[in-house]
Amino acid sequence: MHAGLRLAFAAAVLLAAVEAQAVELTLARKPAAHEEVWLEVAVGALPRGAVVRIDRPDGQLIETISPFAVRAGERAGTYRVALPQALAAKGNVEVELTVLGNGPPHHPTSEEVESVRLIYVPVTR
After folding, report:
1. pLDDT tens per residue, range 70-106
2. Which of the two residues, 16 and 76, has the higher pLDDT score?
3. Which of 19, 49, 72, 100 has the highest CB neighbour number within 10 Å of its CB?
4. What CA–CA distance (Å, rounded) separates 100 from 37?
């Protein structure tokens, strides 16, 4: 097996072994015809080189928040993440969060991920 493929497989196995933090959010209302439901994630201080991975409940990647040029110990900022709209079709959204990099994968602490909420974003169709 190619060394890069072995490394990618090992990383996938390691990620699968980590239990992610499940977050379930309920929509305040049904989105209007000109809106989509997105996720807003307030990221606090992360270890240097760490990222926040956001997955569907089935483990499929939605997005990775990768702060850049943030000083150690400072908040990384607030990130808006487009969601597959099928996730919000039943009136709630469930995602799983994992902090990766600079140490073993783990559930985000309240200092690493300060809040997660749903927002309505106007779109043109």
Report:
1. 887 889 999 999 999 999 999 999 999 999 987 899 9
2. 76
3. 100
4. 25
Q: What mean pLDDT, rounded, does the chain reach?
A: 86
CB contact burial 6-19 (16+ within 10 A = b; e otherwise): eeeeeeeeebeeee
Neighbour count for residue 79 (Cβ, 10 Å): 16
Amino acid at 5: L
The answer to whether residue 2 scores a pLDDT higher than 90 is: no
Q: Show me where the domains of the chain are located.
A: 20-122
d(CA 64, CA 95): 12
Dist CA 48 CA 22 (whole Å): 24
Cα 33 to Cα 42: distance, rounded to the nearest angstrom: 27
- Indicate the helix (H) or strand (E) that contains 43: strand 35-43
Under 8 Å CB-to-CB from 90, ≥6 apart: which residues?
none
Q: Per CATH, which fold does 20-122 belong to?
A: Immunoglobulin-like (2.60.40)
